[in-house]
């Protein structure tokens, strides 16, 4: 697919998803302008299958590429969709050497890449510990790191449900309303030389802080 066609296709998908999620999940976002020009590594919590779309919608100024488990590519239609939107395939057992290099290659091209550092969807709705393999990427990345927090997607579509629970903007607020908060960029030098556990926990706390901001941003019932 020619680059100009991919750009138009991405714009088309963005607009369709924006109106769908704004209408059916009362989506609210903030901080999209925090995503700078040039290569950017976004690090988000992972609440549901909808998260890649939600982060893309919150990043109002940039196209966002994502890491997708290779097992998802078994579905031909889904595989075509992910490739058309610049998804990166990674080993289903974790963050492999190939996934690491592919991420760095995209960043070297000046792109925005988002990773879900928990490695899987949360079981509780909370931000779970980040996978140790992410530290390999953090040691080599030379791009700004932007923390992202998602709130409400777990209530809308937890891993225990086959289909999502809707929260339409025209209905009274429910726990399934969704919001996304994008934090300010962190210079990669901030993590240089720090122990792995300390680095991962500091980054997890920054993502958790954005999740709490997103939770306050959600459309909710007022007392």
Name the features:
single chain, 223 residues, alpha/beta, Glycerol-3-phosphate (1)-acyltransferase, seven-stranded mixed β-sheet, globular
Describe the structure.
The chain is of the alpha/beta class and 223 residues long. It has a single domain, classed as Glycerol-3-phosphate (1)-acyltransferase. Helices cover 38% and strands 15% of the residues. The chain has a 7-stranded mixed β-sheet with strand order 1-7-6-2-5-3-4, sandwiched between helices. Helix 3 links the parallel strand 3 and strand 4. Helix 1 packs across helix 2. The longest helix is centred in the N-terminal third of the chain and has 22 residues.
Largest sheet: 7 strands, mixed
CATH class type = Alpha Beta
Q: Give the spatial strand order of the biggest sheet.
A: 1-7-6-2-5-3-4
Please identify, by name, the CATH architecture. 3-Layer(aba) Sandwich
Strand content: 5-15%
- Helix percent reads 25-40%
Break the fold down into its secondary structure elements and pairings.
Blueprint: H1 3-24, E1 28-30, E2 40-44, H2 51-58, E3 64-69, H3 76-84, E4 88-90, H4 97-108, E5 112-116, H5 134-140, E6 145-151, H6 153-156, E7 179-182, H7 196-217
Helix pairs in contact: 1-2
């Amino acid at each position: 697919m020619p680059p100009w066609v991919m750009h138009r296709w991405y714009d088309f998908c963005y607009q369709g998803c924006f109106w769908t999620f704004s209408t059916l999940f009362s989506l609210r976002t903030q901080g999209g302008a925090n995503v700078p020009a040039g290569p950017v590594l976004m690090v988000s919590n992972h609440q549901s299958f909808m998260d890649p779309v939600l982060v893309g919608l919150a990043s109002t100024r940039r196209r966002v590429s994502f890491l997708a488990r290779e097992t998802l590519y078994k579905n031909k239609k889904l595989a075509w969709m992910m490739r058309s939107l610049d998804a990166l395939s990674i080993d289903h057992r974790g963050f492999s050497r190939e996934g690491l290099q592919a991420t760095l290659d995209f960043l070297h091209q000046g792109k925005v890449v988002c990773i879900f550092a928990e490695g899987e969807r949360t079981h509780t709705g909370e931000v779970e510990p980040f996978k140790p393999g992410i530290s390999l990427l953090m040691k080599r990345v030379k791009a700004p790191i932007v923390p992202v927090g998602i709130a409400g997607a777990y209530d809308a579509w937890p891993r225990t449900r086959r289909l999502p629970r809707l929260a339409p903007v025209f209905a009274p607020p429910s726990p399934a309303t969704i919001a996304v908060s994008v934090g300010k960029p962190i210079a990669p030098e901030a993590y240089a030389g720090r122990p792995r556990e300390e680095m991962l926990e500091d980054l997890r706390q920054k993502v958790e802080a954005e999740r709490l901001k997103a939770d306050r941003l959600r459309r909710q019932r007022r007392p």
